[in-house]
Amino acid sequence: MYLGIDCGTQGTKALVLDTHSGRVLGQGSAAHRLISGANGRREQEPADWLQAFEQATAQALQQAGVSGREILGIGVSGQQHGLVLLDGKGQVLRPAKLWCDTESAAENAHLLDFLGGDSGSLERLGVAIAPGYTVSKLLWTRDRHPEVFARIAHILLPHDYLNYWLTGRFSAEYGDASGSGYFNVRTRSWDTELLELIDPDGALVRALPELIESHRCVGPIRPQVAERLGLNPRALVASGGGDNMMGAIGTGNIAPGAITMSLGTSGTVYAYSDQPQVSPHPQVATFCSSSGGWLPLICTMNLTNASGAIRDLLGLDIDTFGALVGEAPVGAGGVLMLPFLNGERVPALPHATASLHGLTSDNLTRANLCRAVVEGTTFGLRYGLDLLRDSGIRSDAIRLIGGGAKSAAWRQIVADIMGAPVACPQHTEAAALGAAIQAVWCASHEHGEALSLDDLCERCVTLDDTRGAQPDAQRSRAYEGVYQRYREQVQQLQ
Ligand SMILES: Nc1ncnc2c1ncn2[C@@H]1O[C@H](COP(=O)(O)OP(=O)(O)O)[C@@H](O)[C@H]1O
Ligand SMILES: O=C(CO)[C@@H](O)[C@H](O)COP(=O)(O)O
What we know:
Layout (H helix, E strand, L loop, with lengths): L1 E6 L3 E8 L4 E9 L3 E3 L3 E4 L1 H19 L8 E6 L5 E3 L9 E2 L7 H11 L1 H9 L8 H11 L1 H4 L4 E3 L1 H10 L3 E3 H4 L5 E2 L4 E2 L1 H7 L4 H4 L3 E3 L4 E4 L2 H7 L6 E3 L2 E2 H8 L8 E5 L3 E4 L14 E4 L5 E7 L3 H10 L4 H10 L8 E3 L16 E3 L8 H25 L7 E4 L6 H11 L3 E2 L6 H17 L6 H8 L12 H21 L1
Helix pairs in contact: 2-3, 2-4, 11-16, 12-14, 13-14, 14-15, 15-18, 16-17
The site of adenosine-5'-diphosphate has 16 residues, from helix 12 and helix 13.
């Protein structure tokens, strides 16, 4: 038995995987608190992640009817880009700034200038640093909280921090590291000179964790943590990775040919590549995968946070919301929503705000508003998919995951707007599943067996035939017109 954990923005998900049958035996989840403030502040207390880890794990074990003693390995997936700062005793120095925190957008612009703009950043790092990436959070901490900055002994990403808590070791792997903004995706190494620009004394460079390859384990679980979680003290902790990298493994996207689309708090679209073919489009991030290759990706910052905001505003539960989305016509009766509540990464509109267009006294209905937010957020993913297609990604096979993929109406809208068939894996919690699969793979290397990741994905990732969606030619044609209207509105904001 292996445990997969995904520390997402809204909560932690855990699952127990039986590697012999490839079946998920039990799942659990626990919510996270979000600290929001003016100027785009979005932070979380790492201590909350630990508590959620514990709760979700206990639930998953209970549902599986499995003793924690049977767990042979643990894989951890985490929201990308967050910054966890620790002092010399391994204590958290301040709340973690998250991927969706735009408070350090000015610092990002400053660093991007230093790198020579998007093209300089692409040339040097293989990615164009964007607001939300980790590196600008370090500059922000230096300038706004010098007393904290002076005490930094370790800089970790969320999943690195959870691995540290589990094992006592400071490590990182290529997938998540490639979203830091101080990592070169071509050479798979830290860009220490960029960190020295922020801190010429070299303390940040000394605070970097050790990089390990995706197929390695960080080490065994610490006895006191094993006891707290009721787990086998011999369980091995895998390298883990960013949630999108783990979502790739959990959807079997570990070779060229498939596209994974995630409808989580963020919206992401990505496809595996075995070469670091850096896209000329700065909005396409050529991250590393957590399976040995690369994972060109686009990310929108407004997805289920936007649909959730409209749902809350109208006082609807999830099922009623889904029913209303299904009731409204294609194009929401002329209501177009630009859902940029948090600014936006793709399209690149860091300072944009959300807006509603085309409202009349006839079309201002709850159903149209619900459909408009789903369509508007999905147009952002189409915009990103077009950039990926333009960068050479040829596949049309979309695997849909994340909370929003539970909605039948949303799945159909994705198929119609993308003009491509959509398939859902049995487990929409693909990042947690990918983490568990990666844990089996890493443990097998540790034991000298080196199982094939391909075989493991084949055994553990199955598609759910009842939740696919085929594009409808008439609706897809109608959506082309609405999408052009979206693009025109976006252009006016650029
Ligand atoms: N049936 C549904 N229809 C629409 N949205 C849903 C549905 N089920 C869950 N969600 C949305 O998915 C969100 C959680 O998605 P998830 O992928 O777990 O996010 P994250 O990984 O960012 O924490 C919930 O907040 C909710 O808004
Ligand atoms: O910033 C990105 C990818 O670059 C996000 O995709 C985060 O990794 C957060 O993911 P979710 O919490 O939405 O799953």
